[in-house]
Amino acid sequence: QVQLVESGGGLVQPGGSLSVSCAASRSVAGLYDMGWYRQAPGKQRELVASISPGGSTNYADSVRGRFTISRDNAKNTVYLQMNSLKPEDTAVYYCNAKRLFSRDNFWGQGTQVTVSS
Prior knowledge:
- By secondary structure, this protein is an all-beta fold.
- 0% of the residues lie in helices and 51% in strands.
């Protein structure tokens, strides 16, 4: 089992920046793809960004060039830096850990990000 705890969400104005973090309860280095998903009211949960154990990244088209995912394996933490935020980025952001070659898949409790003036 891996417990994931997100932090850093909040309210930001359009065009602003926000960073969210996800701390894992144990080491995820080398074994887990880490990702950020989001779910807006009335919409399905969608992948925002993911990062492999080796650092390869993948982004949704809607956030590419504005968001950056990174991981610090020594701290068992993954980050999502969000710049040039738009109202349509408003959602609950969830951290995900997916173990390689396994069905193990863990979720955090989510953190609210609201982009509004």
